[in-house]
Amino acid sequence: MVILAADTSTGFGSVAIRGPGGDILLVSMEGEKPHSETLLPSIDKALSLAGLTRREVRALAAGTGPGNFTGLRVGLSTFKGWALALGLPILPVPSHAAAAYFSLGEGKEVLVLTDARKGEVFASRFRGLDENGIPSKQGETVLLPLEEAVSWASSSPSGPAKILGTAVPLLMEREGAGWIGENDLSPLDPLAPGVLCIGEILLSLGRSVGPESLVPEYVRPPDARPPGSSGIMTP
Q1: CA distance linking residue 222 with residue 233, whole number of Å
Q2: Range of 155's domain?
Q3: In contact, 165 and 187? CB cutoff 8 Å
Q4: Strand, helix or coil at 160?
Q5: Are 169 and 203 members of one domain?
Q6: 125 exposure class (CB count in 10 Å sphere: 0-12, 13-18, 19+)
Q7: Are residues 180 and 199 in the same domain?
Q8: Residue 132 domain-assigned?
Q9: Which of the residues 2, 52, 55, 163 has an alpha carbon 20 to 30 A from that of 128?
Q10: How far apart are CA 198 and CA 48, in angstroms?
Q11: Is 146 within 8 Å of 165 (Cβ atoms)?
């Protein structure tokens, strides 16, 4: 089954799909333009690389955050509309799990730290894969002030960890290299390949959802709310 995956939770948005030979084809949305302008062209480019059309896609895997509110809204709204129009199942994948996916076979605990802006960090901890091959999250994703992120990252109960994410350069700039110790720091690669791989597992387990059930993982409520509403906006 053809699954198309996308993640728009960070400024480094990406789209992924498997090519005819089973390899993952990746299109990155890096640049100055917002995801609202780059997502659909990136989808079309990925499909072209795979020799496919939009009509041949049979499921959509979406990175659900946490991340930038506007970016998430663009990605999830696009996939909701597509799924509604063609009756496609959606596979919701936490973006931090997608970030950790390819690093969990190295034996170290994986910490994902992404920039939440306003001097804050989204932080998640993963240890290995569960019985289905999905990243095993330890506790909830937390929102931390930047000054507390180093102590959080240094508190791994299983020893040195692999630390990755868009907040790593911010921490390096603030704290210098002294806090790294025996931890292994890594830049954040595009997340769509991880979203695709986890989405494939979810599909095999029958864990798809309809468009109405696709919701973002904000962690922090967005600033923008509809007039008279006290709830969190959803795409």
Answers
A1: 7
A2: 106-186
A3: no
A4: coil
A5: no
A6: buried
A7: no
A8: yes
A9: 2
A10: 23
A11: no
Strand-pairing partners, residue 176, are: none
- Indicate whether 34 and 84 sit together in one domain: yes
Q: Is 190 helix (H, G, I), strand (E, B) or coil?
A: coil
Strand 135-137 with 14-18, pairing: unpaired
pTM, to two decimals:
0.91
- Examine the domain organization and report whether 8 and 75 are in the same domain: yes
Measure Cα distances from 150 to 52, 65, 139, 171, 208 in Å: 45, 22, 18, 7, 36
Helix (H) or strand (E) holding 116: strand 109-117
Residues 22 and 64 in one domain: yes
Structural domain contains residue 220: no
- pLDDT per residue as tens digits for the range 87-98: 999 999 999 999
In terms of domains, do 77 and 110 share one? Answer: no
Residues 157 and 54 in one domain: no
DSSP helix/strand/coil, 61:
strand
Q: pLDDT tens digits for 105-138?
A: 877 899 999 999 999 999 999 999 999 999 999 9
